[in-house]
Amino acid sequence: MNPEMQLSVIVPARNEADCIEKCLRSLTAQSGPGLELGRDWEILCVNDESEDATGEIAAGIAGVTVIEAGELPEGWTGKNNAMWHGVLQAKGRLLLFSDADTVHEAGSLLRALHEREHRQAALLSYSPRQIVRGLTQRSVMPIVFSELACEYSPGRVSDPKTETAAANGQYILVERAAYDKVGGHKAIAGEVLEDVALARMFKQNGLKVIFRYAPEQVRTQMYRTNRAMIEGWTKNLALLFPHPIWLLLMRKLDLLLIVGIPVLYLLLPHFTATTPWQMGALAVMWVYILMRFYLRVAKSNFPAGDCLLAPLGVPLFCILLWLSWTGLKLKKTVSWKGRDIDTGVMG
What we know:
The chain is an alpha/beta fold.
């Protein structure tokens, strides 16, 4: 390893022809005084057996080194294998793992390096600003991310006194020495939730983990189609929560109350005698339930307009949880980008 190279950015990519150029160009644009690409840092794009033009596009961008991940070894997920191949060729004393669908804001890389040093973090992970398109994504994604924010509170994750560990695989910056100490992606070769698993290993080894929402640093459009969103969350949604079926029931109850109370309010006077106090109590109950729901969804950090649409997304969120749970618990297999992943977990 070249001791003068400060950072290696590793971008795993499988069938990312529609977004890889924007990602890599946002990274090459980070080069400047104090962080000169090719001298102080490098960009390694790991082509994970892409069936489209991902590799060719990446190879055409000056300053980017393309690595072929090769055939997927038994017991490995594709992303873990790709990142491990990148690490094996990386020269930096710091490693940044960034997904191919991310776009890095101007000056963000240098700011991240300063933040990691200032906070003395062995692992620094950013949750990007999420870009969504269409009614389905705008209503479902805030629910998913609000539940993630409740389960993996950045405050608890960043507190060394708690066992809560998490990271967002779209942006993880680590010290190479600490990464090697915990075994890196080789130690979690078969994990579907490699980001959470990596953060957990760091924290269990007494290494400092910092996790926060960072819209000023990085943004991403995770899914370009609703089909991709359904496949993506089916892959790992139930793994993210300790009690997915209980969560599914709680969100179904929310929807039942949000929709059912107004219906009851309108129909009840036609079937039984009611007093103004009873009707008022029913209205207050509905307002309370709705406010509680929206206060939870607001933790997603999505725009207010998207959060307002969240009740429309509850049915699909519950379906995704169910599909994810049955795939992981019963079938013990999930699919992602043309590959079947044998999970062998949750049971």
